Amino acid sequence: MIKFFLIDSKQLSIEQSLFNIELFLVSFSTICIAAAGYIINDYYDIKIDTINKPHKVIIGVYISRRGAILWNFALNVIGLGIAYWLSKQLFLVHLGAGVLLWFYSNYLKRTALLGNVVIGFLTAVSVLVMAVQYPQNQELVGVFALFAFFITIVREIIKDIEDVKGDATFGCRTLPIIWGIRRAKRVIYVFFVIFSIILLSTYFSFHQRFVFYLYFVLLPLWGYFFVRLVRADTKKEFAFLSAFCKWIMILGVLSMFFL
Question: Are 229 and 151 in contact (CB under 8 A)?
């Protein structure tokens, strides 16, 4: 969608825009790096996940710890190999992302706020890889990368609140553990306000159809999310908010259609 709706000119057909080996390889290499990151994250979180989400534990149940490391290595090699073949710039971006994903899983995710910011940054990078490989309309791609950055940080802090019991058991120093849930919610409010200002500022930058979608679809849902966040105080309510963030992400992606 980034390639077709944001980067390419209107003169290109769907076949010209989407059905080419380069786009497939950029997407596939990004997926490999992200999948490797998920695997190493689950590897380091086996004990925590048995408390926070026992029904979702994969490593040690369906795949051995040794097998997980082998998969992580193989996916990183495939992703980096494809990226290097495409361009050195893309290779450096994927290499940096892979290193940061390992560092996050091993250390940063157990620190207050910094881990959340890193995941927000990496989510934005997954959008920006398109601007690295295709240098057209980089500003437009950057706007959606900003959207991804802020909504991901909000969701990550909510997930930390949701998982506070398991994280505290194994000595993690996440935001809700250090500051408490009430103060952690105040940090979310700050990011919420910044994100809302960015959304509102698009009124002056984009044409009418996108603004209509933004103001009558995304912003009402964003407001509903805020009301539920203010009232939330149980694990079930924070789990709902985490899932609701995913829907906002999906609708944000669909807004590309109106550009």
Answer: no
